[in-house]
């Protein structure tokens, strides 16, 4: 019996179509990737987090205008400077010295090769900080759970470029992806306080940050205690500026419980206490 | 010299008749324009990532053009048996090697000029600055590096069986030198003997192609490289090119072309 090739093709197509209608609904559950709402998530799965780390590092490389240690150099494991800059850390001369990862040339090849590589430690400035933003945007798309990406990106948008709207949108996006992040709430609080001068919203957000922190496990609280320090100090300053000295002292005392510099906080508490005493009218005891 | 130039002319004609360059150029242009059209945080002044991507594509494309074009030169002549009428003319084997090298190098140079012109237009239109000296230095060193690579591929094409193996092996070697060439000494110092000694020998014995990569200078708007260093690097490239061409000539001289 001779079967027509067209008939075979039609039969195969019918079979494939029938199977597809039956399997489509089940196949949806087979892969986590397909459920991802992010195109990178669909393409790379969890492997995208590796790329996210690389892009975050690229932002730091750009911040240093290419003067950056490779995996073979010393200092390659140090904390990224875009993170420390976003925490308000200014670089001392000693830090600068420590970051001279090149050292003296090892031989004539190394010495001559330095003519063709960047050998000066500089940071982006004068609004050129914008150049790090594409890498942070990509890092956030690839790994929406990487919290530093949002805080660092928002810091540079707000502090160096004055783009508070974009910074807020970026932080809000981070908060949607990481609803329990105190770090993002802290950065959002700073944005409302320093960038938008909106004390009410800043207070709400920072207080929410402290509540979220207190919901963390004791181990995690111990590990992330500096976030509480930042949140409480910012809240204290906000209350002090608003004239709520009692509240300010309350937050300073909370910060003191975790701060690496409790003595300096005590001085601030004393100063606020003086302001509080001066503001409170003396009532004679009966 | 006329014979060498005639041989080189044939290679150049071959390159612009083939589609490799056009495909790679269009791909580079498309990807660069696509990357440049992305808007990050509504800021249109961000440009360095576009320069970075464009230069990476230019480097990959130039390497592919140089390696693929060179790798097939002598094997193709042998396969088509055109090598015999070529050598029957008053052309020495040394002239064939030098002619093939010159043709590939000049053809790659033409391709590089087109690529860098495109790069200058794209970045200049964004930044409104034209660091022509920097463009020249980057292009010159890039071209000098490709001279070493082309000579190395020519040498490989004498000894390896097929153009595909020559291309693959050379590509891996070049990428490895570009990636870890400058770090080999550091890696060597972390190894026990005799590995330490071997890696140190390799470090001093390889052509340091990474010197010729000025992409960072272009991306991060750095000042010009010292012209003396540039001249010395050019001499270094000429020496390595000479070494590889000499070895290729030695191998080609001994090669039985009938098998």
Quick gist of this model?
Chain A is mostly helical and 286 residues long. Chain A has helices spanning 5-27, 39-44, 48-63, 81-86, 93-98, 108-113, 133-142, 147-160, 164-177, 182-195, 199-214, 218-223, 225-242, 245-256, 262-279.
Topology overview:
The complex is a heterodimer of chains A (286) and B (259).
Chain A: H1 5-27, H2 39-44, H3 48-63, H4 81-86, H5 93-98, H6 108-113, H7 133-142, H8 147-160, H9 164-177, H10 182-195, H11 199-214, H12 218-223, H13 225-242, H14 245-256, H15 262-279
Chain B: H1 2-17, H2 20-36, H3 48-71, H4 73-79, H5 83-88, H6 93-127, H7 132-159, H8 163-180, H9 184-189, H10 195-205, H11 215-219, H12 227-254
Helix pairs in contact in B: 1-6, 2-3, 2-6, 3-6, 3-7, 3-8, 6-7, 6-12, 7-8, 7-12
Which key terms come to mind for this protein?
heterodimer; A: 286 residues; mainly alpha; flat; B: mainly alpha; 12 helices
SSE sequence of chain B, one letter per element: HHHHHHHHHHHH
Low-confidence stretches of chain A: none
**Helix-strand string of chain A:** HHHHHHHHHHHHHHH
Residue-averaged pLDDT of chain A, rounded? 82
User: What structural class do you assign from the helix and strand content of chain B?
Assistant: mainly alpha
Largest sheet of chain A: none
**What's the overall geometry of chain B?**
globular
Chain-averaged pLDDT of chain B:
89
What is the terminal separation of chain B in angstroms?
Answer: 30 Å
Question: pLDDT under 50 segments of chain B (min length 5)?
Answer: none
The percent range for strand residues of chain A is: under 5%
Q: Output the radius of gyration of chain B.
A: 20 Å
* Total domain modules of chain B: 1
Structural class of chain A: mainly alpha
Helix content of chain B: over 70%
Oligomeric description of these chains: heterodimer
For the largest beta-sheet of chain B, the strand count, sense and barrel status come to: none
Shape summary of chain A: flat
Number of strands of chain A: 0
Tally the helices of chain B. Answer: 12
How much strand content do the residues of chain B show? under 5%
């Amino acid at each position: 019996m001779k079967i027509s090739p067209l008939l075979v093709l039609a039969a195969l197509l019918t079979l494939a179509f029938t199977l597809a209608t039956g399997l489509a609904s089940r196949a949806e559950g087979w892969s986590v990737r397909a459920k991802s709402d992010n195109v990178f998530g669909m393409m790379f799965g969890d492997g995208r987090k590796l790329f996210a780390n690389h892009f975050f590092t690229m932002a730091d490389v750009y911040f240093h205008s290419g003067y950056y240690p490779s995996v073979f150099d010393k200092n390659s494991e140090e904390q990224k400077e875009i993170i420390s800059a976003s925490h308000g850390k200014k670089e001392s001369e000693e830090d600068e010295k420590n970051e001279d990862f090149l050292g003296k040339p090892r031989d004539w090849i190394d010495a001559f090769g330095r003519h063709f590589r960047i050998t000066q430690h500089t940071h982006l400035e004068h609004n050129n900080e914008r150049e790090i933003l594409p890498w942070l945007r990509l890092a956030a798309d690839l790994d929406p759970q990487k919290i530093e990406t949002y805080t660092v990106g928002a810091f540079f948008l707000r502090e160096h470029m004055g783009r508070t709207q974009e910074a807020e949108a970026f932080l809000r996006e981070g908060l949607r992806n990481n609803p329990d992040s105190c770090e993002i709430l802290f950065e959002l609080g700073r944005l409302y306080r320093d960038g938008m001068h909106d004390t009410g919203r800043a207070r709400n957000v920072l207080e929410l940050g402290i509540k979220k922190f207190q919901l963390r496990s004791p181990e995690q609280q111990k590990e992330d205690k500096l976030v509480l320090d930042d949140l409480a100090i910012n809240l204290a300053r906000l209350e002090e500026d608003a004239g709520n000295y009692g509240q300010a002292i309350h937050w300073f005392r909370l910060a003191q419980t975790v701060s690496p510099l409790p003595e300096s906080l005590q001085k601030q508490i004393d100063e606020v206490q003086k302001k509080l005493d001066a503001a409170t009218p003396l009532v004679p005891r009966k | 010299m006329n014979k060498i130039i005639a041989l080189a002319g044939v290679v150049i004609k071959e390159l612009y008749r083939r589609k490799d360059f056009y495909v790679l150029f269009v791909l580079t242009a498309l990807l660069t324009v696509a990357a440049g059209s992305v808007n990050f945080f509504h800021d249109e002044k961000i440009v360095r990532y576009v320069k970075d991507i464009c230069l990476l594509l230019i480097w990959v494309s130039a390497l592919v053009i140089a390696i693929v074009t060179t790798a097939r030169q002598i094997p193709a002549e042998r396969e088509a048996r055109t090598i015999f009428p070529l050598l029957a003319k008053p052309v020495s084997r040394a002239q064939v090697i030098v002619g093939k090298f010159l043709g590939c190098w000049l053809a790659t140079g033409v391709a590089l000029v087109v690529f860098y012109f495109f790069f200058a237009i794209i970045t200049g239109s964004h930044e409104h600055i034209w660091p022509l000296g920097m463009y020249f230095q980057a292009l010159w060193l890039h071209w000098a590096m490709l001279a070493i690579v082309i000579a190395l591929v020519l040498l490989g094409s004498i000894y390896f069986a097929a153009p595909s193996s020559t291309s693959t092996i050379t590509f891996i070697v070049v990428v490895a030198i570009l990636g870890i060439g400058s770090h080999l000494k550091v890696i060597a110092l972390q190894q026990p003997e005799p590995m330490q000694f071997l890696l140190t020998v390799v470090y001093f014995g390889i052509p340091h192609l990474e010197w010729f990569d000025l992409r960072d200078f272009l991306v991060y708007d750095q000042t010009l490289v010292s012209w003396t260093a540039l001249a010395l690097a050019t001499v270094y490239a000429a020496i390595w090119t000479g070494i590889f061409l000499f070895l290729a000539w030695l191998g080609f001289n001994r090669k039985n072309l009938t098998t």
